[in-house]
Design a protein that fits this description.
Number of domains: 1
CATH class: Alpha Beta
Subcellular location: Nucleus
Protein name: HORMA domain-containing protein
GO cellular component, one term: nucleus
Strand content: 25-35%
Largest sheet: 5 strands, antiparallel
Keywords: DNA damage, Nucleus
């Protein structure tokens, strides 16, 4: 993908590393939650750790196209959070895995990919041991990837924006319970991963 004229090489490189990380991390989360049979995944090495890769073409393509479509918006600093959301049969979220992103747009030094990857690697080590913090999902659950933008891109001026549509998901009425999982900050990138669950006082549907 060509770099925008007003985009620094550092921001473009950081965005590419982040998108590759998100694809692997989201796949690992879906594997962790057991939504599909274990045979739907295969082990591979990424950032010098063992991660899961989707074997089903449709599953692999959905995750890849979703995060790749975010690349130009991450470069511009428009993406605030990327979430993996699991829903019940009423389309009400049961659990959200939230990646909060921060890319330093003014960072002028050379980006050391090895340093960023070393910091991001810790998420893949932390994810499996965080399973006790998560909820058991019902058999009829579904899931999706959702992005939260700081400013909505204009669909008329960006082909990539057409890939993303407003969600009609029912929201929790009460503020969610938040459980931190892992965070890192290694200039020019900061990433926080945390879990959101419905509040104990959330009205039942």
């Amino acid at each position: 993908m060509e770099r925008r004229d007003n985009q620094s090489p550092q921001a473009a490189q950081t965005a590419r590393i982040l998108v590759e990380f998100l694809e692997a991390a989201i796949t690992s989360i879906v594997f962790l939650k057991g939504v599909y049979p274990s045979g739907a995944f295969e082990r591979r090495r990424y950032m010098n750790v063992v991660v899961q890769k989707a074997r089903y073409p449709q599953l692999r393509e959905y995750i890849n196209s979703a995060v790749t479509g975010l690349l130009p918006f991450i470069e511009k600093g428009l993406v605030e959070r990327v979430a993996v959301i699991f829903f019940d049969s009423e389309n009400i979220p049961l659990e959200r895995f939230i990646f909060k992103l921060s890319v330093n747009q003014s960072y002028g030094s050379k980006v050391e990919a090895a340093d960023l990857e070393f910091s991001l690697r810790s998420f893949f080590i932390k994810l499996p041991v965080s399973e006790p913090l998560t909820k058991v999902l019902p058999r009829d659950c579904r899931w999706e990837i959702t992005a939260y933008f700081r400013a909505l891109p204009q669909a008329s001026t960006s082909k990539d924006a057409e890939l993303w549509i407003p969600t009609d998901t029912k929201q929790w009425l009460q503020p969610p319970l938040i459980t931190p999982v892992k965070s890192m900050s290694s200039e020019p990138l900061g990433v926080q991963l945390y879990l959101e669950h419905p509040s104990l006082s959330e009205p039942k549907p």
